[in-house]
Amino acid sequence: MKKIYLLAFSTLITAMSIKAQSPCATGRYASDTFTNVTTTSNVVYGSNLSWSGGATSLKMDIYQPTGDVETARPLIIWAHGGSFQGGTSTDGDVVALSQAFAKKGYVCASINYRLGFFPLDSINAIKAVLRAVQDMKASVRFFYKDKLNTNTYKIDTNNIFIGGSSAGAITALHMAYLNKSCEINYYLIPSVLNSLGGMEGYSGNQCYSTKVKGVINLCGALGRYGWLEPGDVPFCSMHGTDDATVLYNRGQVNPGVPLIVLDGSRMLKEQANAIGITNPFYTWYGQDHVPYAASAAYMDTTIKFVRDYLVTRLGCTDPALMPQNTPAQTATLYNYTVCTTHVLMTCASPGFVGINELTNTNIISSVFPNPSDNDMRIEFANSNTSHKVELFDIAGKLMSSESTEQATFNIKKNNLASGLYFLKVTTKNGESTTQKVMFN
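Given the sequence above, the corresponding structure tokens read:
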């Protein structure tokens, strides 16, 4: 009997010891510990208005290791490339990355984000980047919300990573490091920024965290190297020296049309070294844009290098499979003055969320036209009760408040500036809903 107790005690101690070890102790996250991957397609994580004003549902594909019983798993959110004009969550490179890391025990989400801008110029390109950043933030918030509610995806929210390919990498870098309104005001005046939804945007899951553990930059760039500041999260980068689309060093992004000057991965390496931010960097010597997209060998290199970065961020000590190499070219950091006057976006008073969560058809049956050039008509689902109709701007400021006993109500544009607003309707018994509206 004593031997049985000792065996049971020994087994318990062994289990506790394994549990206390690094997450990579059994090979998970450092190697392929799963054979199959389960993909859930078209998961709605939010919605917002497109560049042309139409309502857009935001969806992503979620990749999970089949049969996984772990209850707190690191997450990688991937964004595809396509010059902010094309591409989807099913592009070959982001699918390959998602499947590869799901087999290692990660959960991966490949997101669709709002695309398109016109005319093709630098200001509209910045707006497109901002819309993509707002959408990526909504996808991060989706998983924080899930963790605190249904916990469907079993995410360890202390270990959320964002990354992407080309335009997707540009999106991830800007989400992580463009965090002051005064930085983007270099390109967009405050009124334009506000009309787009500010730095955070309203693509869904408002008021949840957007904190991430790190960034994966595959052939991306940042508007200004100085947006990378001491204390920011670490990142890894991979980039080809002959990239003519998003330059390796510093130069004009040119996806067929010259658009905007950005600081490429080599510049970010120089800045990160100068301010003490961990930033493993792999250079593809003599290679053009996204070489891994059409080459299994380069994809293998990419997976191994990113794997090394991730396991290090998870606190594992596995030896590197693809050590960083020596950067090419000289990066010269131009004069940059860090801006300090900025507005931090906060969770506004009406408790804004995404369109799919906003409209309560038991209160509002329709709002049209939306967007509107002039007045906007609300039709209530229940005409036998009074309604309080409030209109807020994107900062949460109350613009108007009226009550009505009628079955319909007209919101008059009057002197309202063009842009995004939030319509809140409250019934006599206290039920309420909030609807995104826009005046042109």
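The two ends are 81 Å apart (CA to CA). Try to locate this feature in the token string yourself.
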